[in-house]
Amino acid sequence: MTKRKPLDDSPDWTFEKLDQYQTEIARVAAHYRLDTYPNQIEVITAEQMMDAYASVGMPIGYYHWTYGKKFIQTEQTYKRGQMGLAYEIVINSDPCISYLMEENTMTMQALVMAHACYGHNSFFKGNYLFKSWTDASSIIDYLLFAKNYVAECEHKYGIDEVEATLDACHALMNHGVDRYKRPQKISLDEELKRQKEREEYLQSQVNSLWRTLPIKEESADKKRKRFPSEPQENILYFIEKNAPLLKPWQREIVRIVRKISQYFYPQKQTQVMNEGWACLWHYTILNHLYDEGLVTDKFILEFLHSHTNVVAQPEYNSPYYSGINPYALGFNMFMDIRRICENPTDEDKRWFPDIAGSNWLDTVHFAMENFKDESFISQFLSPKIIRDFKLFQIHDDEKNSFIEIGAIHNDTGYQKIRTALSNQYNLSNLEANIQVLEVDINGDRSLTLRYVPHNKVPLAGSKDEVLKHLHYLWQFDVKLVEKKESGEEVEIGRCPPKATPVDKAS
Amino acid sequence: MANFIDRRLNSKNKSTVNRQRFIRRYKSQIKKSVSDAINKRGVTDVDTGESISIPKKDMSEPVFHQGSGGVRDRVHPGNDQFSPGDRIKRPPQGGGQGSGQGEASDSGEGEDDFVFSISKDEYLDLLFEDLELPNLEKTQLDKLVEYKTVRSGYCAEGVPSNIDIVKSLQGSIARRIAMTSSKRAQLKACEKELAALEADKHDHIKEVKELKLEIERLKAAIAKVPFIDTFDLRYRNYAKEAVPTSKAVMFCLMDVSGSMDQATKDIAKRFYILLYLFLTRTYKEIDVVYIRHHTQAKEVDEQEFFYSQETGGTIASSALELMVKVMEERYNANDWNIYGAQASDGDNWADDSPLCKKIMLEKILPKARYFSYIEITQRAHQTLWHQYQDVADQCGYFAMRHIRSVEDIYPVFRELFKKGEQSAA
User: Fold this and answer.
1) Which residues of A touch B78 (CB under 8 A)?
2) Residue B252 dihedral angles phi and psi, to the nearest 5°
3) Residue A295, SS3?
4) Are B359 and B326 in contact (CB under 8 A)?
5) pTM of the full predicted structure?
């Protein structure tokens, strides 16, 4: 490899230097077959970074007090020194927008560019979840549409009304995700056009659903048809399509919140992979540049210092411990895949016969493209990683007064730990499983939701507040039942509460 | 492939609207916090914002989520002592259970208050919301006493110092072009004809001579058009515009006789602070005159006003007389908006009180925008109060209130300046 004149390694960055580094990073990224959206790199100040935090990473957001609250919280913790700000924020859009903090040194900017503009960016473009659930090219348009639409509604119907609708939608945001259907890709203009059509169409549908004229078929009464015929897990979607008294603009707002929730859904499921992938590439790319002699010792030492901080995993009894660090787990797993490909041990050959000794670049790309955290861990977590992290599993059953060590990093434990860790990232186990069970369309129009507990975990107390929000949208009685192990369904919540006090033996 | 954008110069207050939404939503809680704060506030920090605290549970955003209990399996790193099957006592309150990945739940058990700062402006807006300066209308309509000179276009006449050279020369060029155009057209035609004749093989001596004469005549005529003419001159025009005066003076009158203890003075001070802050919202320039009195009145600085010890009897009229004197000397009622605030514990030499009423009605109130009297006492009202009550009945912008303790100040202040209702005292 020909040694080239190293790039300027003085700590202060300039746009000229950023561009030089970026060019080199892009060259190496292409060498490793990283396929990315075009990059739009924006340099921002700490205050602007706090703005970006507050809007949960959306470059354009509709106005709502919860973002103000987040901003104030961020500002407070940052000003008191309880929290540092991220070095970057990257947005899944096309072109891919990355925010770099003005205060970063040149080395940090290079790290961040390799991490965000090539690592995360290629993940957004390549991973199957993002490919099938989000549309990077239309998200900015959609957010703009949403912001303008909400602003217009505020203008027409008043801030309070819009705010109450948004509050209610936010409470149900996690239950506004389609898991089985693919959203369509449409442009802003089309979105506007369709919104108008939807508005008219929906209203007409709703009216016919609640038609007061009796239907002739009286036999239908015998076999009472359920509505919906099958339970629906996308509560917001159900509301949008079926809530009897919602105004057209409210339906559109429900839809907006639902869409945004859908947009973020893949990110929740790929935290470990996404960060691990980005760390793998900032590490690999910058080391590659170092090997080429393009960056100096000084540069690489500063880089390694930051890198090590990012991928550190405190142990369970450390005061800094707050769960498994997704950067650490992800980075080590991807590096481990490379090791398994390049220098497999006998153990690896036993555990990973299909990838041991294969081309590492093909394999990491394959892993990045076709998995989410849950499946990634259950597929690629190797015994070596379990040993390195000294992972152990704790079984905690409420019925016992103790907790039990289920498995540790030994031969009998590897498989158990792998399964347990994988489940730990399974969103369907983590989020409350609540579905729309039934609407009493012939009676009082009440809506019934059903909670099916996972591992007997009960629903948290906030449910009553959420029911109030749901009631705001549905505007008739809302009931929540829990399906017990015995199969019977017990009412655990209702809004508005029954007029007569109900005795609950509990 | 990459496009760099420097966003640092963009506005950094992208979250301002959201922040305002937040304050709007929690206004009632914040307002309570603000009004509590004014009572606890020291005098020296009138210019700072305020730190607000709201109970966290009031502003949580509920979502459906799993509670505690049930059966859980969790994986942790760093095993240093455990073997499979080990049983450990459950750590209290879910300790040792990192709540896993995903966003941190904000509906956790934390019961801390949510504390944040609001800026000085936000603080004042909340503090003085729904309040307005009494008698302000009159100020704006009647007292357009200050004039400002403003540019108002150009005019054809004026003094030489106001000549606008560019405008004048533009006029000159235009006039010259207009006045010479027909002659220049003739000149052009003649020159063309001359050139044609000269190019001809035959001699046209006579015609050429005549043409040359004509050309010279035209050139001279063009040259005669003057370069600049009085007609061209344009003068900058100025007009006087009346502006409502933005100056205000606030008279602080206080009884410092022996009966006024430091606690009472502090209460009075709070009232002055509020009034001062309130006035700063309306007026750019505010003078404060401190007049203290026992049997004699004296104009003093702030420090002495609030903190020096005095004893003796009380003659309130002396302070009013001094105020009238200062007003006559320094604060012409045509230029200044005059506000007065008098604080006392109600003690006054009984014979003096009617005099106070007279001065107030005849000399002070006709010139003042507003005068407020607060009596800080636990006891029954004395003569001064009763005399002033007569004044209040006669004059809409004289207000008086009774304050018993520090907590009363803010409510009383709000009451005094309540919007749209001119002092019902």
Assistant:
1) 313-318, 321, 389-390
2) -105, 115
3) coil
4) no
5) 0.69
